[in-house]
Amino acid sequence: MKDKEWRKEIEDEIIDLRNRVDKMEGILANRPEASSSCSEQNTIEADIECPEADIGGLRFNAVKTHAVFEKKGGIYYSRDILFNSARDTDNGTGRDLLSEYLDSEDVKKAFVAALDVAGINTDGKISIFIPKENQGIKRYNGVNWRYWLKPRSSGSSAVFAYVHANGLSYYTAASGVDGCAPAFCVSEKHE
């Protein structure tokens, strides 16, 4: 390719790119302002500082992360894995310690504070939980990673469903360490 032809081709690509950028900026400029109501936004970004905790002997380290949540049917699902944790159980009661951590007042306060900074008003009413449905492949630090699902009725409280890095659902021991890609909704309690 001759030098002039090559330059002309690059100049045409630059003009095309500028036109596309101008078009996108026009679309964004004409878009109505984002609502401060959580129920009206389809995507929310927030910097969350999940607190450290010790629940039933299971240690949760403090985690600071940037989270993106996408709305599906009134529930905001984490686009990616926010942190890794065992999902151990209290052998005496069979309670799910990871779910108990997400349901703790400290974690709720952390989410409310992060959403408040992001301009989302929750009125302090938020329910944070592990989704029960497979949400497909999720990433942790840029790598496809396994993540926990909400427990289903089973004969053992020490076995939980998870989604493998390939996107398929399986079961594993609650003492295993997998990703946590929580969901939330603005309400007192989610079932």
Structure description:
The protein is of the alpha+beta class. The protein folds into two domains: 1-31; 41-185, no CATH class. Helix content is 25%, strand content 31%. The chain is built from three helices and 14 strands. The protein has helices spanning 3-30, 97-102, 105-117; strands spanning 43-50, 53-55, 58-60, 63-72, 75-78, 83-86, 127-129, 138-140, 143-145, 147-148, 159-163, 169-173, 177-180, 183-185. It has a five-stranded antiparallel beta sheet with strand order 1-4-5-14-7, with helices on one face. The longest helix has 28 residues, at 3-30. The relative contact order is 0.16.
Characteristic terms for this protein:
alpha+beta; 2 domains
Describe the SSE topology.
Layout: H1 3-30, E1 43-50, E2 53-55, E3 58-60, E4 63-72, E5 75-78, E6 83-86, H2 97-102, H3 105-117, E7 127-129, E8 138-140, E9 143-145, E10 147-148, E11 159-163, E12 169-173, E13 177-180, E14 183-185
Antiparallel strand pairs: 1-4, 2-3, 4-5, 5-14, 6-13, 7-14, 8-9, 10-11, 11-12
